[in-house]
Design goal:
The protein is mainly beta. The protein is about 10% helix and about 50% strand. It has three helices and 35 strands. The strands form six sheets. Strands 14, 16, 17, 20, 21, 24, 25, 26, 27, 28 and 29 form an eleven-stranded mixed beta sheet that branches. Strands 1, 3, 5, 7, 8, 10, 11 and 13 form an eight-stranded mixed beta sheet that branches. Strands 6-9-4-2-12 form a five-stranded mixed beta sheet, with no helix packed on it. Helix 2 packs across helix 3.
Length: about 450
Amino acid sequence: MLVFVSLLILASMSAVQQATAETTPTIKVEPEICVRAPYAVWPNYVNKTFDVNVTINDVDSEEKLVAADFFLTYNKTLLEVVSVTEGPFFQDPRWNLEGTLFIYYVETLPDGTGVVLAMDLIYPNMTTGNFDDWLIFPNGSGTIATITLRSIYQPVAPEPSESCDLEFSETSLVGWIGGSNQTKISHNVRDGKYKVIALQLPRTPIDVNIDVGKIHFKGEITEFYILTSDYGMAVDATSIKAYLYYNGTLFADLTDAIEPVTTGLYKIAYTIPSDAKFGTYTLLAEAEFFEAKGTNIKSFQISSTLEQLEASITEINDNIATVVIPNLGQIKVNLTAVDAKLTEVKGTVGVINSTVGTIYADIHTLNATVTGLIIDSKGEILVNITTTLNSLTTKLDSIDGKIVEVKGDVATVSTTLGEFEVKLADTQSAATTTLYVTSALSAIAVILAAAILILLTRKH
């Protein structure tokens, strides 16, 4: 495979000549020197990727360049090739009339050296097989290929830094001279160099900071945060663990729940169990950055109740409620875990009982809707309300209900949940089951008429 590129380009040559020009093109690696790990302690560049470009420079259009290939070698103990992509130079629409062909291989030489073999060419006229239709050929400078490399090894002090050449073992530029005849274009070559500086391990404990909040509640979905840093710079720990303690006893191993957020910052999403005891809990975090270690603790309270805190729900999503507590911020609560139930409606406010105390919510947040209206045995008008939590039967007055209009057997009722219409016949039928079964419909109508009259009187 080592010679396939040159053979592919040169096989169709019926005449091979050496072209000359006032300026000599150059194939080179950019940047010429790629130095990794510029900071004495950080960062660790193992598994980090970077790009190098193979470029053609100072090409004269008169040379009628139509193809290029190269073999670029590298040290496989330091680097590995992630990808090779075509650059934009030959794709320029000024000379790319029929399309381009870009192919590459990544191989290993007998001595273990890695090599990237790549070719880029402009297709000729597909009918004539030549470039007679071309008014302009490639000129100037540009990228013919971008190679993405990954660092796979970085020495650790006191070991010395490592480097390798990004060296062209073979290159070729091909120009067209008419018909099916082609020529080699003389050119210069400029290799690149890769250098990775030895990692200086920290010799002091790393800093571990924890944020857990002050107060939490049963059923709350909490987020704990851990930040690891060294010399004031956030660093990714090579090892990190977290444990939750209660009364000096391990309550939960949270190591598997640790998730990276960004460099050095970690999050632990944890739901306080519904059977957790009230009191003080302590989060212990342990981290290592190579040979340096660090640890820290942070405590918080699991409160017995939300009573007297005027907690209110502002949003519910998939049974997870956002609860705002004045002067404490907001928390996330699993409504099922705290056995939340709507027990009362006062105007636009819903009163919710739970295992952690009373919580309030705007009834619109609970997606409350009126699903029915009945009259009880005392002649009071009741409404059935369906919400995200549960259904509730309450007095019409509790949602500021008023009968604002009666047309025939249809009454329009205005409430804090909006207006709705109800047929009097339907109401009578429902009332029949609430009153005495033997009551005549005319008697029910009298009761309903009286109730409507009372409400209309209140309105005025």
